Amino acid sequence: MKLFGKKKDSEKKSRSLFGKSKKSDSKKSLNQRKKQISTDAESSSFTSHTDTATTMSPHWMNSNGNVNSRSSALLYHEQVLGGGVRSQADPFSQDEPGRSSNANTNNSNKKNNPFDESESTEYNAKISSFSSSESEGSDMGEMESSADVLRDILTSLEEKDRKEWADGIDDSPKKDQAVEKEELDGTLRKTVDRMDVEPNDLEVQRLGIRIVYYVSKFRHNVVADSTPKGVDCWYANEKAAANRPTSTLNEDDEELITDALDAILQAMEDFPDDEVLIENACSALEATSEKSVIKNNAKRILEEVLMAIEGFADNPAVVSSSLGILCNLSSPSSSNENINDDLRRKLAKYALPSILQGMKEHRDDLHLYTKGCKAMVNFTRDDPNAQRLLACKEALGLRVISEGLKYWQVDKLDVFSTLQHLRLRLAAIRVLKNLSTHSSLEVKGKIALGGGAARLVDRLLEALVFTGKDLVANNYKVGEYNANDSDEVDDDDEVGLSLAIMRDALETIGNLSNIESVIKEDPRSPHMPTIHRSSAVDNSSAEHIQRQLTRVVKPVLNTVRQHPNRPTLQYHGLGCIKQLTISHADSIANHGGISTFLNILSSTGIAEVNDSMIHERALSCLTGLLSPSSNADGLDLVASMETEDGLDTIFRSIRRYQSNTAVIETAYESLFYLSCRVRVVLASIVGHQRMSSGVGAKSARRLESQLCLEENIFVMLGTLNQYFETNEAISQRGLGLLVNVHAFLTQSEGQKHQDQDILVSDGGIRLVLAVMRRHGLAVAIQEYGVGLLAGILKNAISYDAIRREFVDEEGISTVLAAMMIHPDHAALQCHGCDVMIELMAINKHPMEQGYSETAALSAHYKKCILEETNAVALVQDSMQRFRSHKGVTHYGSVLLEELSSKTAVTPLSALPSKLGSSIRSSTSKISSSFR
């Protein structure tokens, strides 16, 4: 695998291909380096160099590459650093008197000191800056070696670690944090300086790296101790808990950590084949909690980590630590977010294959597998290229994820093992959730249709169902829901992990169901949403995905029903169902979806402020089932809504959340679609005696009566009056709902009663005209408004009073303006002409009382239309544009005839044409698409 291209000549002094290494010395020649990096010529493009000034003599290195004399190395590096006067003899010569041949003997440097007394005194003075303990424990004739010093430090740190583990870190005596941090920083600085002085001493590098690991670990504990305790879990707190301790580095700390990282990375470069050193180095890099410093060296670290994974793939410790490092490298950061994200996306194509390979080799190691999944979560976050790479181009990608999703049903599993399985399952599901956000059908199809060993949908459902059963079995209860819940979950919180697993599983299913089939506005009738697919989308693939997701409907509904005290699952479960209603409305309705949604709306909930979000989603699910694009049976929907008291439940929600725009908007949409369903059912049973006695027909009549109740009509008008200024959607659905309600009021077996004027009894005409003027460009609002006005004028009991109010509120100019703004909308032109005709019509017999007054008003309105408007030209233009439209041509010709006549206005009952009578008998055919 060739990671990067060949470097320029000016950059060949560094091994790192991402940037120049801070260490300029190397002990390996070019040929040796190439041999050590990889056995595959194509697996790497790393370059190296040799510096003769710092290359070790083979006389003092054994066959394994270990340094045979640490004291000689100290003398040599002191000479390189430019300090002191030395003998001109070769200090590394095998003929040197008193030299020990055993490189691993701890006391060799004390017994075989090559310096004379004066030189030793000078050397001790110089080296005292590295370690104060070094001069205290030695006399003028001998000096403790760096390896011995580091070994003593490591022994004390290991003892401290064992003691804290035995006592329990919370019970162990605590030092002052500032003092403890100062001691740790001093130890770290001493260690790094020793490693810098003896870069070619393998033992020193091993010990130093191990010390860096422990110091990093203890520094992290100091930061954790300074974090306030008692923070609630994420699901039980209005403010998500930040469970990860963070530290702010000053300039000195950052320099110290940077130097430590440089020392580790240089050791990894100098000893790439030493498994012990690489293992310790990876552990130390993973333990470094200062992520900002890690990311500043990300390119160089990634190079070493990938080499470590490839070179020691059979070592679980190396692979595990490497995966942890990759997770840290790719984790989000609050500072320099854009820079870090760009770097993460750049490195993903190199890191993901290595992660998968490492996880494959150690699939039985749950901790390692979890780290790998977490790293993949970070790399695939908001990165479509990484998502496609993992799902479509890496053969192991989905299989590795599926393996992590497995639900291990083991009896009497201990708490630690249970937490391990939950962590792994959560990490795997989050990888899948990231992949499911990709917009292409190719990626979604790979996930939804994946068969064989992957079986991702089955594994998702297993995780959802069995994790939920475990929660129910343990009778865990959860507090109120936070809408902005964080992805951060306490690794030791079994309930939090379980809820996060179920939440992310529901979100993943919802993402998969969104397969580029969205509800869009139909340009021919903007208020009638229908499903449209892009011509570039392979519809067959989308249909296959839809069929595959049919089996998720029942488990998701059961999850919502079985966890009423867990608002987070209710919220995300309803969001998932909302997506599924686009293509699986029939299945949702057949599995009791309407009953489930209405039960949620009827419950009082835990916290009112949070209930609104859940109730809004429940109403959205109802809207999806009732909408024109729903494939559910219309009679069954109407029957279920009536049986489950659905209409009253929706009105109660409107009254409860009168100030919540989102809930009101969704509730009005549900009411509008329900009224359309009822109107279609009532129209379909006319003349069919057998159908009129069915359950669906009876339910439709009951719902019709409920919609016409005075209290419900006042709620509709009052809410519309509250929101029409600011919300176009509520205005559109509100006027459409009033159109249907007015039709119900006038279709009670053709008998007129005073209730027909209930819509205009308290400013209804003024409200409708105000809504039309406020949203003049919304064609649906104009059509509904003009159609409603025509119906009101046609069937009014207080005819003269309503006409007078219509004219006083500038109704004539409002209707004609709507016709002018939307000349291409035939229904609007038709209804506009009808309004003008009804305004001039005389609906009384000449012998009837009040005929003269009515005729005079009609003549006055006719004069207003002729003299103050351009109605004639407008109607003529409309008739010319819609020559083949029967409604426009009929109403237009009648209106022009009445406007041009010089005689008294013809009574409405005397108008000819059976066609005209039948056309005027109905308002807008807004429900035609339901048929």
Automatic annotation (TrEMBL):
The annotated regions of Polar residues compositional bias extend over 38-72
Under InterPro entries, the record lists: ARM-like, ARM-type_fold
Q: Does the keyword Transferase apply?
A: no
Query: Basic and acidic residues compositional bias: what residue ranges?
Result: 1-14
Q: Which Gene3D superfamilies match?
A: Leucine-rich Repeat Variant
Q: Which SUPFAM superfamilies match?
A: ARM repeat
Which portions of this protein are annotated as coiled-coil regions? none
Indicate, by first and last residue, each region the UniProt record lists as having compositional bias (Low complexity). Answer: 100-112
Region Disordered: which residues? 1-144, 521-540
UniProt keywords, alphabetically: Repeat
Query: Which PANTHER family does this UniProt record tie to the protein?
Result: ARMADILLO REPEAT-CONTAINING PROTEIN 6
Protein name, UniProt field? Uncharacterized protein
Q: Which organism is it from?
A: Pseudo-nitzschia delicatissima
